[in-house]
């Protein structure tokens, strides 16, 4: 995922920053609890295409992005 693109993208629901999860090739937002797919290298930033994260996924991903 291009760092410059990731820096300007925000969650369309919460307007919070997004984080890239390499294993699932998704951008996730811990504020809204949504994961947005990346298809053919292009982030699909539509709420209707987003996947709701489970509570366990949210906690695990929060730990990964902490500084």
From TrEMBL:
Similarity field: Belongs to the UPF0434 family.
A Pfam family the protein falls into: Trm112p
The protein's name in its UniProt record: UPF0434 protein A8C75_08125
PANTHER family listed in its UniProt record: PROTEIN PREY, MITOCHONDRIAL, ZGC:162634
Signal peptide annotation: none
InterPro entries referenced in this protein's UniProt entry, alphabetically: Trm112-like (IPR005651)
GO cellular component entries: cytosol
Record HAMAP family: UPF0434
